[in-house]
Amino acid sequence: MESLKKTFINGRSTAAERLPDDLENCLSRKKWGYEMRTIQVGSRKSKLALIQSGMVIKSLSSKSDHFSFDIKHIVTKGDRILDVTLSKIGGKGLFVKEIERALLDGSIDFAVHSMKDMPAELPQGLEIASIPKREDPHDVLISREYKKLEELSPGAVVGTSSLRRAAQILNIRPDLTIRSLRGNVDSRIARLKSGDFDAIVLAAAGMKRLGVEEKGENLPFDLMLPAVGQGALAIECRSSDIELKALLETINNEETAVTVRAERSFLKRLNGGCQVPIAAFCDRRKDGMLAMSGLVASADGTKLLKTSRLGDQPEALGIMAAEDLLVQGAGKILSDLGTESDTDAR
């Protein structure tokens, strides 16, 4: 497969007789010098989203000179509604639905998402064609007085709009006050420094991609398990676009893809979305086994269910971890949160 992929990307038709007809047609166009294809890339307008799209375009451009790229800005429901916490807006895919509609109607060719924003189920005809190497999946606590989570004063106000983060913080420190905080990274940090909050929690991956160098505490996984796919990017395109899928595969990181598959399998079994207190992280151990940790919590942090599992098949591992939590009562917690979960302990 690697040799075929390389042959296609370099525009040479050796071994082309083994390729699908539509891909052979793509090779023939390039062989005879037809005009290069311009790929339309859908992106949210935020600074982070544009940086992430630019990173992907740069990587793809280094793999082939047969394509050019244009970015099309798309505003999502999650971008439009800024004065309400994400959990109260409701629904899944708050930052992706409008982009997926553009994919399906052909106005864009692929989109770069933060994996943690992706629902467990994708619309028919779309797929995640590539997952580049994962950035740091940790959450970071930044406080005005450079304190760690355990050092914050009782009653200190912590800003986050994530139920997952809030629930885990309250489970450890029920004496803290959680207040909603939305907006881009720069505006969140500005509100912290202006005194609106004593501390805020941000994703390490976003900070690094933006070049933000604020002093903070990288919260260990035993205190703060990340969102499913946190730190990874999801490159989504139409399943029928064979030419583009071949290009996108060249920047896929298999290690990241395997571990994220386990996490998304966990999310799918729980019928959860990115706006509920579900957390998971999978990593490969030195012996080759996959180590999976999963969590479901009540919004107030009083109930926090955890599991850890080992396995070598990512999808099966994610399902087993989810089943562990369903046996413990995760289905009831998620149902009470209004996730329309049909998950019951089986």
From TrEMBL:
Its UniProt pathway annotation is: Porphyrin-containing compound metabolism; protoporphyrin-IX biosynthesis; coproporphyrinogen-III from 5-aminolevulinate: step 2/4
Going by the UniProt record, its keywords in alphabetical order are: Porphyrin biosynthesis, Transferase
Task: Tell me what this protein is called.
Answer: Porphobilinogen deaminase
Q: Could you tell me the superkingdom of the organism this chain comes from?
A: Bacteria
GO-annotated biological processes: protoporphyrinogen IX biosynthetic process
Q: Recite the UniProt cofactor note for this protein.
A: Binds 1 dipyrromethane group covalently.
Which cofactors does it use?
A: dipyrromethane
Catalytic activity reads: 4 porphobilinogen + H2O = hydroxymethylbilane + 4 NH4(+)
EC number annotated for this UniProt entry: 2.5.1.61
Q: Which residue ranges does the record assign to the Porphobilinogen deaminase C-terminal domain?
A: 258-326
An example Gene Ontology CC term for this record: cytoplasm
- Identify the InterPro entries for this entry: HemC (IPR000860), Porphobilin_deaminase_cofac_BS (IPR022419), Porphobilin_deaminase_N (IPR022417), Porphobilinogen_deaminase_C (IPR022418), Porphobilinogen_deaminase_C_sf (IPR036803)
Q: What else is known?
A: The porphobilinogen subunits are added to the dipyrromethane group.
Similarity annotation: Belongs to the HMBS family.
Q: Which residues carry this modification: S-(dipyrrolylmethanemethyl)cysteine?
A: 274
Q: How does it assemble?
A: Monomer.
Q: Which SUPFAM superfamilies match?
A: Periplasmic binding protein-like II (SSF53850), Porphobilinogen deaminase (hydroxymethylbilane synthase), C-terminal domain (SSF54782)
Function of the molecule? Tetrapolymerization of the monopyrrole PBG into the hydroxymethylbilane pre-uroporphyrinogen in several discrete steps.
Give every Porphobilinogen deaminase N-terminal domain span: 39-245
Species name:
Sporolactobacillus laevolacticus DSM 442
Any one Gene Ontology molecular-function term assigned to this protein's record: hydroxymethylbilane synthase activity
